[in-house]
Amino acid sequence: MANRHEYEIAFVGLKPGKHEYVYDIDDKFFADYQPQDFTDAQVTVKLTLDKKSSFLMLKFEIGGAVTLICDLCGNTLQKNLWDEFEVLVKMVDNPEEMNDTEEDPDVYYISRTESHINIAGWMYEFINLSIPLQRTCGENPDGSSKCNQEALDMLRKLNEHHIENGNPIWKDLDKFRNN
Ligand SMILES: [Zn+2]
Asked: Where are the domains of the chain?
């Protein structure tokens, strides 16, 4: 994943100043990573790379949408993504040492002799960071929940059933422990 060439930028050959790249990201991009809790990614990442003599300023603009599952009722939800992230990539003689001690997550060091940067890891991280933490259907203008009420009722009944009868899975585990 980290070596996929399409996400490598040969910045050494670029003129000083701003350069734009646009990436269309779908679920295939995430196949190399752990399973994601979203599907149907239709994400556009616009990267602006500003090349200076001793550093690169990277600006990632995340747009598009993903499909999530509501935490409460299990309905699928399409969420629009919109966020921006910046990374300052400094060229130094001792990048490993500097990366080990740098506390600012938005600053990254590479060697002065480096010719390429791979942006796949940042894209992965920033797409994930732009997904809302609260994953619920939300509310109607009148304040009522947009959740699937039938599913909520069903879940409530299942929960009550488990509390009354004990969860059979745990009962079996208890048996196993006692042996
Ligand atoms: Zn819901």
From this structure: 5-144, 148-179
